[in-house]
Amino acid sequence: MPVLRLFAAAREAAGVARVDLEGATVAEMLAAAEGSFGERFTAVLARSRVWVNGEPATGDTPVTGHDVVAVLPPVSGGAGDTSVVARPAGP
Residues 20, 1: contact at Cβ < 8 Å? Predict the structure, then answer.
């Protein structure tokens, strides 16, 4: 059975990092996930990229029993507020 792996905001919205889902295409798997995980997940999915086995995918991309479908929401941020302090070189 194909595996759906969720990252960042998609994982938070679904409450799980991975789930086995039936589906012959990416669209079928994602529709099943939307039905299981609700509106918050659907909102995250709308702005996410989907990959199958490490390759970019579309809704009509076929999936089979051993495929891994990954949902990757946009990521931003970093260290937050930082300041730069100049230090002299040397010991």
Answer: yes
Amino acid letter, residue 3: V
Q: What's the rounded Cα separation, in Å, for the pair 34 and 44? A: 10
This prediction has a pTM of 0.81
Residue corresponding to tokens 């099943």 = 32
Torsion of CA 27, 33, 37, 42, to 10 degrees: -10
- Distance, in Å, from the CA atom of 49 to the CA atom of 7, rounded to the nearest integer, reads 11
Residue 13 host element (H or E): helix 8-14
Could you read off the pLDDT of 43-73 as tens digits, one per residue?
999 999 999 999 999 999 999 999 999 999 9
